[in-house]
Design brief:
The protein is of the alpha/beta class. It has one domain: Alpha-Beta Barrel (TIM Barrel), CATH 3.20.20.300. Helix content is about 35%, strand content about 10%. The chain contains five helices and six strands. The strands form two sheets. A three-stranded parallel beta sheet has the order 1-2-4. Strands 3-5-6 form a three-stranded mixed beta sheet, with no helix packed on it. The N and C termini lie far apart (about 35 Å).
Protein backbone atom coordinates (compact mmCIF):
# COMPACT_ATOMS: atom_id res chain seq x y z
CA UNK A 1 0.00 0.00 0.00
CA UNK A 2 2.68 2.48 0.94
CA UNK A 3 6.07 0.88 0.46
CA UNK A 4 7.94 -1.29 2.90
CA UNK A 5 7.77 -1.55 6.66
CA UNK A 6 8.95 -3.77 9.47
CA UNK A 7 6.75 -6.81 10.02
CA UNK A 8 6.16 -7.95 13.59
CA UNK A 9 4.54 -11.23 14.70
CA UNK A 10 0.76 -11.44 14.93
CA UNK A 11 -0.84 -9.83 17.99
CA UNK A 12 -1.67 -13.15 19.64
CA UNK A 13 1.96 -14.26 19.34
CA UNK A 14 3.21 -10.97 20.76
CA UNK A 15 0.78 -11.23 23.67
CA UNK A 16 2.13 -14.71 24.44
CA UNK A 17 5.37 -13.01 25.51
CA UNK A 18 3.51 -11.33 28.44
CA UNK A 19 6.06 -8.53 27.91
CA UNK A 20 4.47 -5.09 28.15
CA UNK A 21 7.81 -3.31 27.68
CA UNK A 22 8.32 -5.18 24.41
CA UNK A 23 4.82 -4.26 23.24
CA UNK A 24 5.42 -0.59 23.99
CA UNK A 25 8.69 -0.72 22.02
CA UNK A 26 6.90 -2.43 19.11
CA UNK A 27 4.26 0.32 19.09
CA UNK A 28 7.01 2.92 19.25
CA UNK A 29 8.86 1.35 16.31
CA UNK A 30 5.67 1.19 14.24
CA UNK A 31 4.88 4.84 14.89
CA UNK A 32 8.49 5.88 14.14
CA UNK A 33 8.21 4.22 10.73
CA UNK A 34 4.74 5.66 10.21
CA UNK A 35 5.99 9.18 10.93
CA UNK A 36 8.92 8.73 8.53
CA UNK A 37 6.66 7.37 5.77
CA UNK A 38 4.10 10.12 6.39
CA UNK A 39 6.76 12.84 6.17
CA UNK A 40 8.26 11.32 3.01
CA UNK A 41 4.82 11.12 1.37
CA UNK A 42 3.95 14.68 2.39
CA UNK A 43 7.26 15.94 0.97
CA UNK A 44 6.20 14.53 -2.40
CA UNK A 45 2.68 15.91 -2.13
CA UNK A 46 1.05 12.52 -1.56
CA UNK A 47 -1.84 12.64 0.85
CA UNK A 48 -3.90 9.69 -0.33
CA UNK A 49 -5.45 6.76 1.41
CA UNK A 50 -3.18 4.68 3.68
CA UNK A 51 -0.64 7.48 4.00
CA UNK A 52 -1.87 8.99 7.25
CA UNK A 53 -1.12 8.47 10.90
CA UNK A 54 -4.33 6.76 12.03
CA UNK A 55 -4.10 3.07 12.90
CA UNK A 56 -7.13 0.82 13.34
CA UNK A 57 -5.43 -1.09 16.11
CA UNK A 58 -5.36 -2.69 18.63
CA UNK A 59 -8.10 -5.29 18.39
CA UNK A 60 -8.88 -5.84 22.07
CA UNK A 61 -11.73 -8.26 21.52
CA UNK A 62 -11.40 -11.56 23.33
CA UNK A 63 -10.61 -14.75 21.47
CA UNK A 64 -13.11 -17.10 23.10
CA UNK A 65 -14.00 -19.32 20.15
CA UNK A 66 -11.30 -20.81 17.90
CA UNK A 67 -13.72 -20.84 14.96
CA UNK A 68 -13.57 -17.05 14.79
CA UNK A 69 -11.47 -16.19 11.77
CA UNK A 70 -9.89 -13.07 13.27
CA UNK A 71 -8.64 -14.48 16.56
CA UNK A 72 -5.00 -14.04 15.57
CA UNK A 73 -5.57 -10.25 15.52
CA UNK A 74 -6.36 -10.27 19.25
CA UNK A 75 -4.24 -10.68 22.37
CA UNK A 76 -6.08 -13.87 23.36
CA UNK A 77 -8.86 -14.81 25.73
CA UNK A 78 -7.70 -13.18 28.97
CA UNK A 79 -9.20 -9.76 29.84
CA UNK A 80 -6.30 -8.78 32.13
CA UNK A 81 -3.55 -9.70 29.67
CA UNK A 82 -5.45 -8.03 26.83
CA UNK A 83 -5.71 -4.84 28.91
CA UNK A 84 -2.03 -4.74 29.87
CA UNK A 85 -0.70 -5.56 26.40
CA UNK A 86 -3.16 -3.16 24.76
CA UNK A 87 -2.26 -0.25 27.04
CA UNK A 88 1.45 -0.75 26.38
CA UNK A 89 0.97 -0.98 22.62
CA UNK A 90 -1.19 2.17 22.47
CA UNK A 91 1.29 4.12 24.58
CA UNK A 92 4.02 3.12 22.14
CA UNK A 93 1.97 4.05 19.08
CA UNK A 94 0.82 7.40 20.39
CA UNK A 95 4.06 8.44 22.08
CA UNK A 96 4.50 10.42 25.27
CA UNK A 97 4.64 14.02 24.07
CA UNK A 98 2.33 16.17 26.24
CA UNK A 99 0.84 17.99 23.23
CA UNK A 100 1.31 15.91 20.05
CA UNK A 101 0.53 12.33 19.05
CA UNK A 102 3.06 10.28 17.09
CA UNK A 103 0.13 8.41 15.60
CA UNK A 104 -3.50 7.83 16.52
CA UNK A 105 -4.50 4.39 17.78
CA UNK A 106 -8.06 3.10 17.67
CA UNK A 107 -9.28 0.36 20.01
CA UNK A 108 -11.71 -2.00 18.33
CA UNK A 109 -14.41 -3.43 18.19
CA UNK A 110 -16.49 -1.95 21.01
CA UNK A 111 -17.92 -4.21 22.41
CA UNK A 112 -18.60 -7.95 22.60
CA UNK A 113 -17.31 -8.62 19.08
CA UNK A 114 -15.74 -12.06 18.83
CA UNK A 115 -17.40 -13.66 15.85
CA UNK A 116 -19.03 -15.28 14.06
CA UNK A 117 -17.31 -13.20 11.38
CA UNK A 118 -19.70 -14.05 8.57
CA UNK A 119 -22.67 -12.83 10.61
CA UNK A 120 -21.02 -9.79 12.18
CA UNK A 121 -23.54 -7.34 10.70
CA UNK A 122 -26.56 -9.20 12.04
CA UNK A 123 -25.30 -11.18 15.05
CA UNK A 124 -26.84 -10.34 18.44
CA UNK A 125 -24.48 -11.20 21.31
CA UNK A 126 -26.37 -12.13 24.46
CA UNK A 127 -24.24 -11.28 27.47
CA UNK A 128 -24.91 -10.71 31.16
CA UNK A 129 -23.86 -7.46 32.85
CA UNK A 130 -21.42 -9.46 34.97
CA UNK A 131 -19.75 -10.97 31.90
CA UNK A 132 -19.79 -7.60 30.17
CA UNK A 133 -17.99 -5.85 33.04
CA UNK A 134 -15.63 -8.68 33.98
CA UNK A 135 -14.78 -9.96 30.52
CA UNK A 136 -15.58 -7.69 27.59
CA UNK A 137 -15.15 -4.13 28.87
CA UNK A 138 -11.92 -4.08 30.97
CA UNK A 139 -9.58 -3.70 27.99
CA UNK A 140 -11.58 -0.83 26.51
CA UNK A 141 -11.75 0.90 29.89
CA UNK A 142 -7.99 0.53 30.38
CA UNK A 143 -7.16 1.82 26.90
CA UNK A 144 -9.38 4.87 27.35
CA UNK A 145 -8.42 5.75 30.93
CA UNK A 146 -4.77 4.67 31.09
CA UNK A 147 -3.49 4.84 27.53
CA UNK A 148 -5.74 7.71 26.39
CA UNK A 149 -6.42 5.89 23.12
CA UNK A 150 -7.35 8.42 20.46
CA UNK A 151 -10.37 6.54 19.10
CA UNK A 152 -12.68 3.60 19.64
CA UNK A 153 -14.28 1.76 16.72
CA UNK A 154 -17.74 0.42 17.33
CA UNK A 155 -18.51 -3.25 16.79
CA UNK A 156 -20.66 -4.26 13.84
CA UNK A 157 -22.91 -6.57 15.83
CA UNK A 158 -25.68 -6.05 18.33
CA UNK A 159 -25.42 -6.70 22.04
CA UNK A 160 -28.56 -7.75 23.89
CA UNK A 161 -30.73 -6.47 21.05
CA UNK A 162 -29.20 -3.04 20.39
CA UNK A 163 -26.53 -2.08 17.84
CA UNK A 164 -23.23 -1.65 19.68
CA UNK A 165 -22.66 1.80 18.14
CA UNK A 166 -25.96 3.06 19.58
CA UNK A 167 -26.35 0.83 22.63
CA UNK A 168 -27.72 2.87 25.55
CA UNK A 169 -25.81 0.82 28.12
CA UNK A 170 -22.49 0.85 26.24
CA UNK A 171 -22.58 4.58 25.61
Amino acid sequence: RNGRATIFPQAIGMAATFDTDLMQRVGDAISDEARAKYNASAAHGYRGQYQGLTFWTPNVNLFRDPRWGRGQETYGEDPFLTSRIGVAFVKGLQGNHPKYLKSAAMAKHYAVHSGPEGLRHEFDAKVSRKDLWETYLPAFEALVTEAKVEGVMGAYNRTNGDPCCAHPYLM
